[in-house]
Write a structure and sequence with these properties.
Layout (H helix, E strand, L loop, with lengths): L3 E4 L2 E4 L4 E7 L9 E6 L6 E6 L6 E3 L7 E6 L4 E6 L8 E7 L18 E2 L3 E6 L1
Parallel strand pairs: 2-11
Antiparallel strand pairs: 1-3, 3-8, 4-5, 4-9, 5-6, 7-8, 9-10, 9-11
Length: about 130
């Protein structure tokens, strides 16, 4: 079992930046592909970005491409989401997720339906 704890959310003005962190428990974090999802009120959860466990490959959704960057520090058991040029439509609860129950190729970035462990989320609010 792994615990994922997000932090770094908050209120920011349009055009501002935030950096989210997701700290994971356990000694095998370095073998977990990780991802960030978000869900706004009344909307479905969106797959924002993912990273392979080696960190060598990433996926980024078109709606945040060029603005958001995912990274990981396996020595710190932490994955990050750097968010720049924020827009009001980025307002949502941001979750990190991991694939824990399967062993995957080091450069594989799982699809949105493959994640099996979730954090509680951190709220990001972008004011106009």
């Amino acid at each position: 079992q792994v615990q994922l704890v997000e932090s770094g959310g908050g209120l920011v003005q349009t055009g501002g930046s935030l950096r989210l962190s997701c700290a994971a428990s356990g000694q095998t974090f370095s073998t977990y592909p990780m991802a960030w999802f978000r869900q706004a009120p009344g909307k479905e959860r969106e797959f924002v970005t993912g990273i392979s466990w080696s960190g060598s490959r990433t996926y980024i959704a078109d709606f945040v491409k060029g603005r958001f960057t995912i990274s990981r520090d396996n020595a710190k058991n932490t994955v990050y989401l750097q968010m720049n040029s924020l827009k009001p439509e980025d307002t949502a609860l941001y979750y990190c997720a991991a694939v824990v129950r399967r062993s995957l190729f080091s450069a594989y970035v799982p699809g949105k339906d493959e994640y099996d462990s979730w954090g509680q989320g951190t709220q990001v609010t972008v004011s106009s």
